[in-house]
Amino acid sequence: MTNELRPIPSDFAAKALIDDAGYLKMYAQSVDNPETFWGEQGKRLDWMKPYTRVKNTSFEYPDVSIKWYEDGELNVSANCIDRHLATRGDQVAIIWEGDDPSSDKKITYKELHEHVCRLANVYKELGVEKGDRVILYMPMIPEAAYAMLACARIGAVHSIVFGGFSADALADRVTGSQAKLLVTTDEGLRGGRSVPLKANCDKALAKVAHDVKMVVVQHTGGDIAMREGLDFWYHEQTQKVSADCQPEAMNAEDPLFILYTSGSTGMPKGVVHTTGGYLVYASMTHEYVFDHQDGDIYWCTADVGWVTGHSYIVYGPLANGATTLMFEGVPTYPSPSRFWDVCEKHKVTVFYTAPTAIRALMGAGEEHVKGADLSSLRLLGSVGEPINPEAWKWYDEVVGEGRCPIVDTWWQTETGGILITPIPGATETKPGSATRPFFGVQPVILDTEGVVQTSVEAEGVLCIKDSWPGQMRTVYGDHERFVSTYFETFKGYYFTGDGCRRDADGYYWITGRVDDVINVSGHRMGTAEVESALVAHEKVSEAAVVGFPHDIKGQGIYAYVTLMEGEEPSEELRKELVTWVRKEIGPIASPDLIQWAPGLPKTRSGKIMRRILRKIAENDYDALGDTSTLADPSVVADLIEHRANA
Ligand code: 6R9
């Protein structure tokens, strides 16, 4: 890892929002006097009823409680749309670029207002009320943003299920949230292939006990079944209602959305974000991290099914009156030039993507970048997993032509917005480091015993001391799980689940998860989830899943499978299990490698020793460590001998 500081490109620095002295001054204010600092920042939004109390938070186990702006009232959709109408009504709010390079459209703030109001009125007609949950199962089309904002407008709580998740995973989330309504499309389109979203919804609802209505956007025109009296076409219903809908006054602490994410144990948990603090934080981070200025064409390539899409495609940019680009397709269709062609076509100025995409495009060759005119670009961002220095340098030199700062932004579904990141006009960067904390964020490194590391250079687990406004408030329906997952291990701190190193300059380097969560192409996957999908198959007796280094995906999924008595391993069964996991969870959970394991290394008390399984998957046999506590040490030799290979 290189330690050399990269200076801020001078043309960028000359026009940037703040410089290093500005950052240091604001950072000091933010931690010395959070009440005043966040009280001021709250004013970036329009409030229907002003707040008088800014911060009321405690990380003290077990009485964890997080409230920001708690007596204020506001509406998120009014802040993302209505307040811009007077000054930016005819400015483009959303640029949509379809999967097919010949399809695109532009939606102004005025048009956005009408679309969102109409859909909000449709929701109301279908019986959706303040506080009700609405599930969105959508491709990357503008209607996905309308559907989110329409929920916010009437105070309904949206929960987006990524379009790549299976019908079974969707059913779990519909039941878990007791949603009244599902919003979807006939089909999605990705890389020229259609994705049967409505058909998946039909399959999912067959497993759901309560009645759920559907609003269906006609996107591809594909053939689908509509249930009489329960399924409604978006284009028909929105024409029947008024184009105006008064935004509901919401308390700052009313929930805005639920987003399911994988954890180290059990099934995915519903992360709950609320209204006021979340939007203040999404707006502020979008402005400072992306140096947002009038005239920017901002493109975040994430999917709205992930938190990055929530905070940095929709809520942050629109709260700031930005022009945000939404892309339906994939980086490699119709060719590996697609990202760069889109940058040229729409004159993108700020580009935010994931290391996995950078590595894949780097592998495709420089010529795909060189063919496009990227002179509009001025800032590049990265998110989702640690970016390896080689990919960082390629991004810097080949895409950014040495002219664009790179912001490597570390954050999580739980944090609502970016916590550790360079501020592009202020922070000199180092390839592979997320650098310094954002305003109000106090990172702390602890050793595994929970001792705070006070020296500048330190390594351990990453925790955060004290709250920031964008923080999640609870796990939907299970506050105890929230408290025990994030606040029990290291008392008094928010535990991130990530390992981290702090160097002599005080820069933070995220080293990856320290729990049983793996990061596949920037997507979080709980090993427990994949294991429980595998053991649900009738021929599987036991399964243990770990991550292993993968050139493009960052981590791949390695599964050790023990079969039921009498079952024989075969290539056919291997394929069957992969298909099975795709059906249970979705393609992103497909095991890359399956090893048939007659036995798994266990302690005498029956606990699977994952440390050993990880080392075997990583091909790192010298570091197996102590195996003497195993109930049967001979299983290790067998596993090593039969290690699976790609
Ligand atoms: C925003 C998002 C969160 C986990 C997180 C960490 C990893 C995200 C990173 C990064 C190193 C970065 N992660 N950004 N690791 N450098 N810049 O990705 O949320 O899907 O919840 O994942 O992703 O391990 O804990 P989420």
Automatic annotation (TrEMBL):
<keyword id="KW-0436">Ligase</keyword>
<dbReference type="Pfam" id="PF00501">
    <property type="entry name" value="AMP-binding"/>
</dbReference>
<dbReference type="Pfam" id="PF13193">
    <property type="entry name" value="AMP-binding_C"/>
</dbReference>
<dbReference type="InterPro" id="IPR025110">
    <property type="entry name" value="AMP-bd_C"/>
</dbReference>
<dbReference type="GO" id="GO:0046872">
    <property type="term" value="F:metal ion binding"/>
</dbReference>
<dbReference type="InterPro" id="IPR000873">
    <property type="entry name" value="AMP-dep_synth/lig_dom"/>
</dbReference>
<feature type="binding site">
    <location>
        <position position="524"/>
    </location>
    <ligand>
        <name>ATP</name>
    </ligand>
</feature>
<feature type="binding site">
    <location>
        <begin position="408"/>
        <end position="413"/>
    </location>
    <ligand>
        <name>ATP</name>
    </ligand>
</feature>
<feature type="binding site">
    <location>
        <position position="582"/>
    </location>
    <ligand>
        <name>CoA</name>
    </ligand>
</feature>
<feature type="binding site">
    <location>
        <position position="513"/>
    </location>
    <ligand>
        <name>ATP</name>
    </ligand>
</feature>
<dbReference type="InterPro" id="IPR020845">
    <property type="entry name" value="AMP-binding_CS"/>
</dbReference>
<feature type="modified residue" description="N6-acetyllysine">
    <location>
        <position position="607"/>
    </location>
</feature>
<feature type="binding site">
    <location>
        <begin position="384"/>
        <end position="386"/>
    </location>
    <ligand>
        <name>ATP</name>
    </ligand>
</feature>
<feature type="binding site">
    <location>
        <position position="498"/>
    </location>
    <ligand>
        <name>ATP</name>
    </ligand>
</feature>
<dbReference type="GO" id="GO:0003987">
    <property type="term" value="F:acetate-CoA ligase activity"/>
</dbReference>
<feature type="binding site">
    <location>
        <position position="521"/>
    </location>
    <ligand>
        <name>CoA</name>
    </ligand>
</feature>
<dbReference type="GO" id="GO:0019427">
    <property type="term" value="P:acetyl-CoA biosynthetic process from acetate"/>
</dbReference>
<keyword id="KW-0479">Metal-binding</keyword>
<feature type="binding site">
    <location>
        <position position="535"/>
    </location>
    <ligand>
        <name>Mg(2+)</name>
    </ligand>
</feature>
<feature type="binding site">
    <location>
        <position position="540"/>
    </location>
    <ligand>
        <name>Mg(2+)</name>
    </ligand>
</feature>
<feature type="domain" description="Acetyl-coenzyme A synthetase N-terminal">
    <location>
        <begin position="23"/>
        <end position="80"/>
    </location>
</feature>
<feature type="binding site">
    <location>
        <begin position="190"/>
        <end position="193"/>
    </location>
    <ligand>
        <name>CoA</name>
    </ligand>
</feature>
<dbReference type="InterPro" id="IPR011904">
    <property type="entry name" value="Ac_CoA_lig"/>
</dbReference>
<keyword id="KW-0460">Magnesium</keyword>
<keyword id="KW-0547">Nucleotide-binding</keyword>
<dbReference type="InterPro" id="IPR032387">
    <property type="entry name" value="ACAS_N"/>
</dbReference>
<dbReference type="GO" id="GO:0005524">
    <property type="term" value="F:ATP binding"/>
</dbReference>
<dbReference type="GO" id="GO:0005829">
    <property type="term" value="C:cytosol"/>
</dbReference>
<feature type="binding site">
    <location>
        <position position="308"/>
    </location>
    <ligand>
        <name>CoA</name>
    </ligand>
</feature>
<comment type="similarity">
    <text>Belongs to the ATP-dependent AMP-binding enzyme family.</text>
</comment>
<feature type="domain" description="AMP-dependent synthetase/ligase">
    <location>
        <begin position="82"/>
        <end position="467"/>
    </location>
</feature>
<dbReference type="InterPro" id="IPR018247">
    <property type="entry name" value="EF_Hand_1_Ca_BS"/>
</dbReference>
<comment type="function">
    <text>Catalyzes the conversion of acetate into acetyl-CoA (AcCoA), an essential intermediate at the junction of anabolic and catabolic pathways. AcsA undergoes a two-step reaction. In the first half reaction, AcsA combines acetate with ATP to form acetyl-adenylate (AcAMP) intermediate. In the second half reaction, it can then transfer the acetyl group from AcAMP to the sulfhydryl group of CoA, forming the product AcCoA.</text>
</comment>
<protein>
    <recommendedName>
        <fullName>Acetyl-coenzyme A synthetase</fullName>
        <ecNumber>6.2.1.1</ecNumber>
    </recommendedName>
</protein>
<dbReference type="InterPro" id="IPR042099">
    <property type="entry name" value="ANL_N_sf"/>
</dbReference>
<dbReference type="InterPro" id="IPR045851">
    <property type="entry name" value="AMP-bd_C_sf"/>
</dbReference>
<dbReference type="Pfam" id="PF16177">
    <property type="entry name" value="ACAS_N"/>
</dbReference>
<feature type="domain" description="AMP-binding enzyme C-terminal">
    <location>
        <begin position="529"/>
        <end position="607"/>
    </location>
</feature>
<feature type="binding site">
    <location>
        <position position="537"/>
    </location>
    <ligand>
        <name>Mg(2+)</name>
    </ligand>
</feature>
<dbReference type="GO" id="GO:0016208">
    <property type="term" value="F:AMP binding"/>
</dbReference>
<keyword id="KW-0067">ATP-binding</keyword>
<keyword id="KW-0007">Acetylation</keyword>
